[in-house]
Amino acid sequence: MDAVIILDRLQRHLEIASWAELTHHSNRVASLVTRVAQILNIPAVPMAIAAYAHDLGKISWPVELRDKHPLSPIDWGLIHSHPVVSAKELAQIWPQAPPDILALVRGHHERPGGRGYPDGLKEISTELSIIAACDVYDAITSERAYRPGGAQDARQALLAVADFAPARVVAALAAVVGKIA
Ligand SMILES: [Fe+2]
Ligand SMILES: [Fe+2]
Fold first, then answer.
1. Which long-range CB contacts under 8 A does 26-34 form with residues at least 24 apart?
2. CB within 8 A of 2, min separation 6: which ones?
3. pLDDT value for 89
4. What's the CA-to-centroid distance between 41 and ligand 1, angstroms?
5. Is the pTM above the cut of 0.85?
6. What is the distance in A from the centroid of ligand 1 to the CA of 54?
7. Tens digits of per-residue pLDDT, 23-45?
């Protein structure tokens, strides 16, 4: 299926959820991922599709969980399962989705050395690092209702990304957002 059709379906799927911040976050992450992938000479379209789909699993959350803080153990269970649900949602929207794109969606909260979830992967591919880096960067620099302090400085966000992403990914992201890493 044509990538444009997939991206359009994903966009509509997000819009139906009436969760504007999630739609905007997905759009911003996809934009960052596309530009970082281009700098690193990695095919951008599969990355963009994975970025659009990465948080689809949050759509089925109860509305009160969207901005809830602090979280209960049950809430954490839902949060930790969302990458798996996101990959299932993408496979429903796009039955021919390539396994590597589904793996990018499922793995966007994985961290080197098994520090992430849902699978505790020890090794993180460059593609996965790019999605994770752009996701964390956008989460930190965006306003979130549960964090009254508001958006943090881009430089702080890049430092947080450098904690888990390879230097060349951090440098590419820094170039995209116009900051020196
Ligand atoms: Fe996520
Ligand atoms: Fe996200």
1. 26/51, 26/52, 26/53, 26/54, 26/55, 27/52, 28/138, 28/142, 29/54, 29/131, 29/134, 29/135, 29/138, 32/134, 32/137, 32/138, 32/173, 32/176, 32/177, 33/130, 33/131, 33/134
2. none
3. 96
4. 25
5. yes
6. 6
7. 999 999 999 999 999 999 999 99
Structural Rg of the chain based on CA atoms: 15
Q: How far is the CA of 162 from the centre of ligand 2 (A)?
A: 17
Dihedral sign for Cα atoms in the order 44, 99, 121, 78: positive
Strand, coil or helix: 72: coil
* Domains of the chain with bracketed CATH: 3-132 (1.10.3210.10)
Ligand 1 centroid from CA 128, angstroms: 12
What is the 108 CA–ligand 1 centroid distance (Å)?
6
